[in-house]
Amino acid sequence: MTTMPMIESDIHPAVDNPELPAFLPNDQLPPFDGDRIIQYREALREAMSEEMRKDKRVFLLGEEVAQYNGAYKISQGMLDEFGPKRIIDTPISENGFAGMAIAAAMTGLRPIVEFMSWSFSFVAADPILNNAPKMLYMSGGQFGCPIVFRGNDGAGGQLASTHSWCVEALYANVPGLKMAIPSNPYDAKGLLKTAINDPDPVFFMESERMLGDKAHVPEEEYYIPFGQARLAREGDAVTLVSFGRPVNFCLEAAETLAAEGIEVDVLDMRTIRPLDIESIIERVKVTNKVLVVDQSWPFASIASEVMAQICETCFDWLDSAPARLNTADVPTPYAKGLEYDYLPNPERIVDAVRKMLG
Amino acid sequence: MTQATAASSEHTQMNTAKADSPASGLAPTAKTATELPKEVLVKWLYDMQLIREFENRTMQAYQQAKIGGFCHIYTGQEAVAVGTIGCTNSDDPVITAYRDHGHALARGMSPESCMAEMFGKTTGCAKGKGGSMHMFDRPNWLFGGHGIVSAQTPMGAGFAFSEKYQLEVMGIGKKKVTLCYMGDGALDQGCFHEAQNLASLWDLPVIYILENNGYSMGTAINRHTANSENLIDRAKGYGIKAAKIDGLDIMNIYNEFKPIVDECRETSRPAFIDLKTYRYQGHSMSDPQKYRTKEEVDTYKDKDSIAKLCSDLMHMGHIDEAGWKSMRKVISDIVRASVEHAENAPIPEAGELYTDVYANPQKNLSPTATYTHGTKNPLM
To answer: Inter-chain contact B151–A59, Cβ cutoff 8 Å?
Structure first.
């Protein structure tokens, strides 16, 4: 038998010995609030840079990530620090470079593939859906695929139909992959660090509209475990379940409702696969009412899945039918006002909650 | 000792012999095939006949409904897999499409494991989870067996990228050449053009081996790709070294292909090879072959690559009629034993459905499934 420096001995393959970072329970993670205020994009950069300093298997590739310093400046300065062999500008060939990166992951490297937008990932649908999540299974456990695909997801700013895709419902349907959708800078860093270390393919959803959001991000290293939701706001009237950018809409709506004396929960799922159904059940037992807020289309959406799981697991705790609030079921419009109305915006959330409460 | 064990131990001996021969650890250094040691040349004949016989039994088992799904037979193309793999080192990555039994055997996968995979048994290379189109063999650096036409071509660039990255960034490994096989149907997929562009742009040591059997399923090459008589100019358009090689004569394959492998390893530049070959069977087992004549098939059978090598070796005095007969007998026994093995091997237990989905199977990954770690396949 031949020696396989990469696959067998020198470096642990993802399959045989997944080296997971030390995960802390939620209550031992560094404080969520603080005064080290940085942008969401900087938090992503910090996550990648910290992992790349520690682990030479990790590299970043994508369109404009190197010399241009990132189409959205997420990877700004990384070329200077890590050089062109690890921060790699690709041609506009998603199918080609995604497939290439998957092969690199099969041999033990840890690629981070940046899609400028998840809207552009469809031309790479075959490698990212047919190869990455199925490789371990169809090879009978011989080859894993420790890879992160990340990029902007959902409506940006008036980008119209083809550039505003929310891909989570389409992609989360596939077993073999994991999916994380951070709603804030703190989670962006902690979840991305976990994603890079996970031995399975992780689909990581960011949002162009959140990249400039500022919040406290601890300087220290921390890993947010997948499958643990965060109760972003506690109430008693209704539990709002959300993930990604709409969590912020929920928090805004919660403020408006609080002024009317209605206190709602906002539960940020953080990851879709795995989905922390226990935390949802726990809150449903308190509020007995649930509204799922999701920035993708309603038909067969993540909201549909969450509602189905709620009905399967805690139906008896519900005082009324679970409800969902999605984007309008139309292609994404260009006009500013139409785009706003299309999204599950704070006003729509407030209306939906009022309707639930009669 | 039962016949099966005897045959299987004989195969093991052949494999051991292979491990000591230049064809295994290090690629042969002879300039022309005729200068290669007798053992190497005879092993080529053995491997080609093994594939031929294995595929005969595969078709039989398929007709008996012991093998399911899509099954693509390699018969006729044996010289390509054996000849090209014979020019590489045993730890050079290899990836191919769904017509993959020949590459798996040429790479050294045991016939038992290959056959058991098609029978959907636990001793199959993928524990019965992949089937005919997904032959994976980690110890032999075979990365599949891929079902979507041309999906393997960006991945071929990826293995070359990975080996180069390990050498240049991590300071481990060595200079390797990746072989990426493809049928002529794969020429027409966009991702192959993306792969060529990336391979050339980034100096990736990958060789695309076009197994040009003239048909993209049932569509003849002049009906499915433009300028089909001159495919190598396309690769040259990407700045990739390209050559057209007669794929029916293994000696010729070695003579033409070995320098290309050596150059690719040395310069880290990709290459594209148009290897003209022919498949004797249909596209898959369910192909009635209305698109070609029996006469056309017979023309190629008259130029059979195994018969050609056998006659060359007899001419050279490397094998005689008796030797050839006994080799065929050994192979026949080994292949029959592989079928017996596959018949008798255990089917996957029900719990196997939920293993090997995730390397880190956390809870709540699915509303209906609880995933667990898979067990390591003892044969892999």
So the answer is: no
CA distance A181 to A163: 18
User: Hey, what domains does chain B have and what are their CATH numbers?
Assistant: 3-348 (3.40.50.970), 350-380 (no CATH)
Q: Please say if A94 is a catalytic residue.
A: yes
- B372 has a pLDDT exceeding 70: yes
Of A100, A200, A308, the CB nearest to B155: A100
% of chain B with per-residue pLDDT over 70: 92
A84–chain B Cβ distance below 8 A for any pair: no
Q: Is a pLDDT exceeding 80 seen at residue A8?
A: no
- Where is the domain boundary, A194, A216, A238? A216
One domain, residues A96 and A236: no
Asked if B368 reaches chain A (Cβ–Cβ under 8 Å), the answer is no
In this prediction, residue B27 has a pLDDT band, given cuts at 50, 70 and 90, of: low
Are A291 and A208 part of one and the same domain? no
Nearest CB to B172; choose among A10, A106, A175: A10
ipTM: 0.94
SS (H, E, C) B174-211: CCCCEEEEEEHHHHHCHHHHHHHHHHHHCCCCEEEEEE
CATH code assigned at A184: 3.40.50.970
Structure tokens at A346: 């704070």
